[in-house]
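[retry 2/3] Metallo-beta-lactamase domain-containing protein: previous attempt timed out, resubmitting with same input.
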Amino acid sequence: MAARITFLRNEALHTVKSGYPGNKLFGSRFANGEELYTPEFSNVFRWKFLTENPQKEEKKADTWAPEVVSCTEFLRGTEDGLVWLGHATFVLRTRGTTLLFDPLLFDSAFLKRRHPLPCRPEELTGIDFLLLSHGHRDHLDEASIKLVARQNPQLRVLSSLRMAPLLKGMAPKLAVQEAGWWQQYDLGPGAPLEVYYLPAAHWHRRGLNDLNKVLWGSFLIRTQDKLLYFGGDSAYANHFEDVERQFGPIDICLLGIGAYKPAFMMQLSHTNPHEAAKAANVLRAGHVVPMHYGTFDLSDEPASEPIRTLQDVAHGGMLRGDLHVPKVGEVLRWQEWE
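[retry 2/3] Metallo-beta-lactamase domain-containing protein: success.
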């Protein structure tokens, strides 16, 4: 019997896209727009046991990792800035408000960092908002959530539909606000910024029985007359056009460029460098900051290939915005960018 179709959103929040009924559910499972996406175990088996990586030797020889500088002074201060901590983890400070995106601060049995963190995890204090794009373990790490929650009792979490039970199992006192796609979070009166939860083409799974039962997505932050887009994890899809149509040109895009090979395994989950450039161009981005590369070994491409490819795209005039390739821990003065 076909799954019952319903729609879900947070009725307490404003939906900015006219006529949008909420996120589509097939039974209890969220969809990528109109279509239910189910990752195939056969693809994992094919990748791990039946496919030889044609770049195996090149990957083995490629020991490149991003350069790292300390961001301790920035974290202790009050100045505005944007700092990449590696992978998809960023700290954004604007008008006295500090946001932390998708923190992954520790190694685990399956995720080993290829470069140091640019600060001690204990230095991540004074965080006002924790933005969690989705529930995959390289974006939502339990040890990191527990530490950040313990160090920041004032913290408020902005995340997706059905995320609160998962987070409260890690840190019961966390204040969690859930949103569906195209919804604006309620930050209270006088907030110096606006935050929206927007679509992504991805999926959710942490255990055996929770496939697509928690929503995934991206974020848009409006502050200081600039729009900053954090793409989370996403394949290339038409939501980039929808975001541009809704909000106009984006000033700064943080987009994933790594974990794209083999394509049969990764193309419905992540953008490769060419697709990320296409997404940035569709968004009419003035500035592009790449992420989701160089920190962890998640796929078959050599470590330096994603950023080398994106730089070639930019140097060839195929990226309309300015490309910024920061060191891990480097402070980007995004508020000064034209």
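[retry 2/3] Metallo-beta-lactamase domain-containing protein: The CA atoms of residues 253 and 288 lie 5 Å apart.
[retry 2/3] clearing retry counter.
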